[in-house]
Specification:
Distance between the termini: 26 Å
Radius of gyration: 15 Å
Structural class: alpha+beta
Strand order of the largest sheet: 1-2-3-4-5
Number of strands: 5
Number of helices: 3
Order of helices and strands: HEEEEEHH
Shape: globular
């Protein structure tokens, strides 16, 4: 919960939202019980076990908060995965200037340009693509499981 409180300090409690025994996200509430957003965590890439040399590929973790009304990204943090390589190819995708591109976007807007609003990091196109795709799909999943 601490990582989510860093992203949205008003969070007082979270409730897990699961489907088919899989965590979709966490509902994040303030002290008054008002739903502030949907918190999520995602490993990127999720599964690369069958790719030769996968243990040397960059891996990331994405933590985010999605607005419960418009389903826009409120805040986001991208970090190097603790199981990733000791020396990642790029750290640029973990920098605030890359992360800030996602803030205020809906799933439909989360694509690499020219199709979307996200500018890939030069020489980190694969990592940029993986992260962008993972965030878009996670937001779509949250929308499909929570929108009424």
């Amino acid at each position: 919960m601490e990582v989510f409180k860093r992203l949205l300090p008003k969070i007082a409690r979270i409730n897990q939202l699961a489907s088919d025994d899989e965590t979709i996200c966490w509902e994040a509430y303030d002290e008054m019980g008002t739903l502030l957003g949907y918190a999520f965590a995602k490993d990127v890439p999720e599964g690369i076990d069958n790719i030769p040399g996968a243990d040397e590929m960059d891996k990331y973790q994405v933590f985010g908060i999605v607005d419960p009304d418009e389903y826009k990204i409120i805040n986001l943090d991208i970090i190097v995965h603790p199981e990733g390589p000791q020396e990642p190819w790029t750290l640029d995708v973990t920098e605030p200037q890359f992360e800030k591109q996602f803030i205020g976007l809906t799933a439909a807007e989360i694509n690499l340009s020219p199709d979307g609003e996200i500018d890939a990091i030069t020489e980190a196109t694969l990592s940029s693509t993986w992260i962008t795709d993972a965030i878009r799909e996670k937001v779509k999943d949250i929308v499909s499981k929570t929108k009424q």
